[in-house]
Each structure stands twice: as structure tokens, then as C-alpha cells.
Design goal:
about 150 residues, alpha+beta, 4 helices, Aminopeptidase, five-stranded mixed sheet
Length: about 150
Amino acid sequence: MRIEAIRQAHAADLFRLYDALDDQPPGNHPDASERLTVYFERINCWPHSGIFGCFDQDQLLGSYSLIVVPLLVHGGRQIGIVESVVVDSLRRGQGIGRQLMEDAARRGRQAGCYKLMLSSNLRRHQAHDFYAQLGFQRHGYSYHLEIDHAEP
């Protein structure tokens, strides 16, 4: 298995994985491929950021997004935000998620991040246990504010 940046050519596979998430996947929209192109461009314009996937030959088994954000505090160091972590439901429990998260940590270190951050829905108890096993610690509270429901 290998982990590499996901390209537009893997959009259908990415949509299949996102269907397993609780949120509305981008693949449910009629203009999904156009939207995905915009999403890819947005994420990939940030240095050291991208959508990365675990592949077995050409089959996409899991993915995550990493956004690296520079800060004015902490000596100007950066943080890595991990989002949209998903593994094919038929391949869970085989170490793919661990490989993805280890890859995120490696990429974050290479980018000069002093920490990785992620949030997880309160109902996802198995995910919480998984992240704790990897050394992630619960820290503070996570808040969000819906500021626009319209798609870009």
C-alpha cells in the first residue's frame, strides 16, 4: 500500500468513501465533478496542504485532508488541521487509518507544524478511541459557527 496525493482522476472513488461520512458528501450534487475541481484547487493552493489517500494498487482505501496554517503566535510556527478522515467500511480495522494519520503527522512535521489538530463528532466514539490510541489528546472545546449555508 502507498499513500500519495489524490488527483482529480480518483474523484469517483473519493465520493464513494465520503458516502460513508455523516455529512452530505460532495458526490450527491449533480455538478459534483466541477465542485470537486474547485475544492481540490482551494486545498492545493495552500503550501504543504492537500487531499491524501491510501492506495492498494489503484484502489483508494482511505483518505484525509491536511491544511497547514501559519500562525503569528508560537514563534510563527504552523499547525496542521486534519479533516475528512475516512476509510472504506470494508477495510476498517486493517491499519489503514493508522497509516493515514502517521502520514499526516509526517507531512505536518516536514511542513514545520508544532501540532496536528482535528475535530470529531461527539457520536463517533470508535473514532475517539482510535485517535486516543494514536496519541491525540482531548484539548479544550471545539466550537463552530455556521456562517453561510450556500455552496461556493
